[in-house]
């Protein structure tokens, strides 16, 4: 077994809360990890780096600063390998888990359903079994607005019927159902399902952001790649919907707001003994059309985004946005950013990192060598290579 642990630093008091973040090197996971570090949590990230780069973790440490950065520990682990994951449970006592790890490309899930079912479901079951065995029964799970399918009306409230249209969506729905069964069987579990709408934007520093591999599936990463010259034009999937300008309408939410939403959910888990298994939407409650979003990005980057109108994309809903009252009322959380802030921050990230993290090695900060020395020192100290 090539068990690769990087304990980023070894500070932090024994009394602070320790959170396991699966998929913490990914887009939403990296922003949330940073938020948790800044709030003083100790964070253990496990990620297979299947759809992310270790550079993202390095930058999270850098942004967290010399004190809070001491509290991040990173393991390159595939959670489908239960023995590897168990090593983490042996090394740390987790107070709660935020479970982001999973594959998320809808089209790929249609082409490779078994790959999606295996990765997303087996990894999750391994995680839940270990949580139960090691007595950590507080969970925040990354669900998705995809569980609303093509909603009959908007805004979507959490009690809408669930309907999924592809294998990816079914993995989210199956995991939601598993958590409901788990909590029913053992009332010690406290579980929050966060249904994200359409995450966009980046950390305002421009150091971390979304970096999809291959052709982007989602609107804003595609727009971003047109703006930096990696792609020639955006294809708009349909302008004949019954919406304000005929293009699809979505609830875009700044990734920084998602990060604070996870922090609010954790607080709820710690403070509310009868949370049971509860779903919350994380959205802004506002619907923005594809063309409105493109126009906002054009304002942010000062460039024209060439586009071509094409047929509708199969499976797309015309209009989806969140009812936000439940999260506001029960989590005390509300999204703060509008589409201009989302596009401003996404462009800041894109213009500084036009090729994402992968061409980033030349722009590491001057203290990189010192950082690497600290990391290797701690890795030796931990002696977890087997
Ligand atoms: P992401 O791909 O950037 O992050 C997911 C991370 O999980 C990646 O770093 C990947 O390497 C890791 N991972 C995947 N399988 C793993 C495994 N078996 N073991 C360990 N790590 C593994 O995606 P994201 O946008 O940050 O999404 C995070 C979560 O939120 C996912 O579960 C996704 O389905 C969900 N979600 C995302 C969106 C969205 O539009 N971005 C919307 C709703 C829900
Ligand atoms: C938004 C709008 C497209 C790309 C997906 C998943 C969902 C969730 C979020 C994970 C639609 C249009 C897009 C393009 C376009 N992810 N579009 N040209 O489909 O709302 O949700 O991501 O859980 O599960 O399904 O997001 O960004 O793909 O599309 O015109 O190149 O942009 O038709 O109207 P979607 P999206």
Automatic annotation (TrEMBL):
Pathway: Carbohydrate metabolism; galactose metabolism. It comes from the Eukaryota. Its cofactor is NAD(+). SUPFAM superfamilies: NAD(P)-binding Rossmann-fold domains (SSF51735). Residues 20-345 form the NAD(P)-binding domain. It catalyses: UDP-alpha-D-glucose = UDP-alpha-D-galactose. Its EC number is 5.1.3.-. GO terms for molecular function: UDP-glucose 4-epimerase activity. Keywords: Carbohydrate metabolism, Isomerase, NAD. Belongs to the NAD(P)-dependent epimerase/dehydratase family. NCBIfam families: galE, PRK10675.1. This is UDP-glucose 4-epimerase.
């Amino acid at each position: 077994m090539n068990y690769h642990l990087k304990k980023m630093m070894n500070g932090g008091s024994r009394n602070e809360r320790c959170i396991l973040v699966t998929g913490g090197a990914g887009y939403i996971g990296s922003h949330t990890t940073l938020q948790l570090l800044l709030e003083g949590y100790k964070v253990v990230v496990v990620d297979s780096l299947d759809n992310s780069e270790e550079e993202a973790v390095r930058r999270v440490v850098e942004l967290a600063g010399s004190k809070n950065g001491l509290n991040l520990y990173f393991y390159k682990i595939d959670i489908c390998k239960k023995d590897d994951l168990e090593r983490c449970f042996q090394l740390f006592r987790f107070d709660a888990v935020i479970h982001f790890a999973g594959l998320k490309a809808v089209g790929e899930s249609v082409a490779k359903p078994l790959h999606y079912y295996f990765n997303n479901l087996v990894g999750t079951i391994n995680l839940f079994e270990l949580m139960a065995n090691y007595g950590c029964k507080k969970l925040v799970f990354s669900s998705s607005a995809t569980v609303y399918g093509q909603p009959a009306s908007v805004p979507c409230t959490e009690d809408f019927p669930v309907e999924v249209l592809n294998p990816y969506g079914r993995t989210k729905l199956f995991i939601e159902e598993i958590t409901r069964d788990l909590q029913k069987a053992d009332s010690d579990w406290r579980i929050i399902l966060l249904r994200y709408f359409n995450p966009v934007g980046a950390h305002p520093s421009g150091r971390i952001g979304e970096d999809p591999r291959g052709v982007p599936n989602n609107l804003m990463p595609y727009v971003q790649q047109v703006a930096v010259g990696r792609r020639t034009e955006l294809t708009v999937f349909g302008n004949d919907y019954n919406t304000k300008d005929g293009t699809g309408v979505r609830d875009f939410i700044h990734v920084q707001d998602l990060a604070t939403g996870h922090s609010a959910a954790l607080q709820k888990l710690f403070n509310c003994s009868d949370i049971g298994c509860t779903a919350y939407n994380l959205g802004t409650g506002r619907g923005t059309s594809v063309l409105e979003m493109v126009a906002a990005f054009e304002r942010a980057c000062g460039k024209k985004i060439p586009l071509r109108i094409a047929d509708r994309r199969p499976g797309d809903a015309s209009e989806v946005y969140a009812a936000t009252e439940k999260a506001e009322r029960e989590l005390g959380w509300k999204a703060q950013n509008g589409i201009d802030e989302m596009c401003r921050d996404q462009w800041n990230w894109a213009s500084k990192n036009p090729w994402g993290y992968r061409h980033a090695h030349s722009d590491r900060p001057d203290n990189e060598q010192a950082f690497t020395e600290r990391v290797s020192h701690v890795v030796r100290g931990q002696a977890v290579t087997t």
